Amino acid sequence: MPEPSTHFLLTGAALSAAAAALHLACIAGGPAWYRALGAGEPMARMAESGSWYPAIVTLGITVVLLVWAAYALSGAGVLPRLPLLRIILCAITAVYMARGLALVPMMILMPGRSVVFWGWSSAICLGIGIVHVLGLRQAWASL
Questions:
Q1: 84 exposed, middle or buried (CB, 10 Å; 0-12, 13-18, 19+)?
Q2: Is the pTM of this model over 0.90?
Q3: Is 91 a domain residue?
Q4: In angstroms, what is the C-alpha Rg of the chain?
Q5: At CA 125, angle to CA 116 and CA 64, rounded to 5?
Q6: How many domains does the chain have?
Q7: Is the pLDDT of residue 128 over 90?
Q8: Which among 110, 74, 117, 79 has a CA at the least distance from the CA of 92?
C-alpha cells in the first residue's frame, strides 16, 4: 500500500511507464514514428531498411524506463523494497535532471535532430526529474 506522502513518486513511475509505452509504440509504428518522435533520420532509415538495430536500441531504452518506473513504485511502497532503493532513485533523478538541463550539449553531441525535438524532450526530462526530486523529498525518511 502506498504511503500518503508518495504521490510524486507514483507520478514519476507513471511518467516513466508512459515514456516506455511511447518507445514501444515507436517500434510498432515503424519509420514514421521514429521520425515523428525525433529519433533522427538515420534511425528512421535503418527501420525502413528492415534493420533490427532501431528496435533493439528502443527496446533497451524501454526496459530501462520500466526498471525506473519499478524503482519509483518501490519507493512509493507499491512494490516490495528493491535493492539499493535510495541510491538508485537518486541516480534516476540525477539522470532525468541532467538530460533535462543538457539541452545545448545534447544538440552539439547528437546533431541531426530538430531544435523542437531537443526543446520538448529536454523539457519533458526536466519535468520528470523535478517530479522525482519532489518524490525523493516526500519519501526520503521511508527510503
A1: exposed
A2: yes
A3: yes
A4: 16
A5: 120
A6: 1
A7: yes
A8: 74
Residue at 30 is within a domain? yes
Burial of 95 (0-12, 13-18, 19+ CB in 10 A): middle
C-alpha cell, 35: 521520425
What digits encode the pLDDT tens for the residues 85-102? 999 999 999 999 999 999
Q: In 3-state terms, what secondary structure has residue 107?
A: helix
How far apart (Å, rounded) are the C-alpha atoms in residues 117 and 54? Answer: 18
Mean model confidence pLDDT for the chain: 94
Q: How confident is the model at residue 2 (pLDDT cuts 50, 70, 90)?
A: low
The answer as to whether 68 is a domain residue is yes
Q: Which of 51, 58, 56, 65 is nearest to 37 (CA)?
A: 58
Domain hosting residue 48, numbered range? 7-142
Asked whether residue 2 is assigned to any structural domain, the reply reads: no
